[in-house]
Amino acid sequence: MECYVCPHRCGVDRPADMHAEGIFGSCHCGLKPIVARAALHFWEEPCISGEKGSGTVFFSGCNLHCVFCQNYEISSLNKGKEILF
Predict the structure, then answer these.
(1) Cβ 30 vs Cβ 12: under 8 Å
(2) If residue 22 lies in a helix (H) or strand (E), which one and from where to where?
(3) What's residue 64's pLDDT?
(4) How many angstroms separate the CA atoms of 41 and 38, rounded?
(5) How far apart are CA 34 and CA 79, in angstroms?
(6) What is the pLDDT of residues 26-74, one digit of tens each?
(7) Which of 8, 50, 65, 82 is the most exposed place for a label (fewest CB within 10 A)?
(8) Distance CA 80, CA 37 (A)
(9) Which position has the higher pLDDT, 25 or 18?
(10) Are 49 and 33 in contact (CB under 8 A)?
(11) Residue 83 gets which letter from DSSP?
């Protein structure tokens, strides 16, 4: 299954999971999503979250590779757990 989701359009044939041997694309992810955090989220975007907050899900594996990323461990080191589907 070749991946062309992001603008890098790397065309990588993703392995079944991140621990399998294989070639990974620009985001270094396997076929299954990796979730680093799922929780209630307060304090930001008050016009959206209101007084009770909103939900947030942080997925690992980002293809932007920003030098000053505040979530480097999540975005570039793929911290989290694979989600089975």
Answers:
(1) no
(2) none
(3) 81
(4) 9
(5) 8
(6) 777 777 788 999 988 887 777 877 788 888 899 888 878 788 888 888 8
(7) 50
(8) 7
(9) 25
(10) no
(11) P
Identify the bridge partners of residue 56 per DSSP, sorted by sequence position.
39
* pTM confidence score: 0.67
Residue that is written with structure tokens 């899900």 in the block: 57
Q: Classify residue 30 by burial, with Cβ atoms within 10 Å: 0-12, 13-18, 19+.
A: buried
Close Cβ partners of 22 (under 8 Å, ≥ 6 residues apart): 13, 14, 15, 30
pLDDT score for 36 = 92
Which of 9, 26, 19, 10 shows the shortest CA–CA distance to 63?
26
Residues in the chain: 85
Residue 34 identity (one-letter amino acid): I
- What are the E-state strand segments in 1-85? 34-41, 54-59, 81-82
| 31 vs 19 pLDDT, higher one | 31
CB 8 within 8 A of CB 57: no
